[in-house]
Every structure is written in C-alpha cells, then in structure tokens.
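Exam revision sheet. Question 4 asks you to relate a sequence to its structure. Input first:
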Amino acid sequence: MLPTTTVALTIRVDNDYAHGPTYTHLLNVDVPIPGDDINLTEWMLDHLFPYTGEGPEYADSLAIYSVQIISAPNDFDVLLGLAVSAMG
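Answer key, structure tokens:
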C-alpha cells in the first residue's frame, strides 16, 4: 500500500464582509500533509485559505477571512485549533 499524502480535515471558514453579512461554513477537505519542517501558517494559507470567500459577487468587498481546523485524525491532532486570518 502506498503512503498517504493527504489528510482529511474539517475546517471552519468565516467570511466577514465590512459592508455586508458574515458567512460561516464547516467544510470537509482533503489537503496535502504538512511536512515536518514546514511553516504551518504558510501551509494553511496555501492549502486552506483558498476555501474562503463567497464568490465573484463579493470580489470587490473588503472582508476578514478566517480558517480554523476543528477536526483532524488522531495522527494529526497537533493541527487541531490552528487558525489563520487575513484581510482582503
């Protein structure tokens, strides 16, 4: 059997628009496993942050986007609770 190269996570995504509503999504995602020597913030920005946003109708709206890992397999419990946010 080949080694697994991805991990299944449940993430909470919050899209908080400055002049509009806030959207919250719970998503099940399958993303590449972070390497031992990787910066976890950069890994989250690369692999989890793309799940933020509500689509082209909000593309010109200022917002704070947040992602938090709320569920991970036992072997990846070090990832639980990690969060990243950015304004855009």
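Marking note for examiners. Residues 6-87 form one domain.
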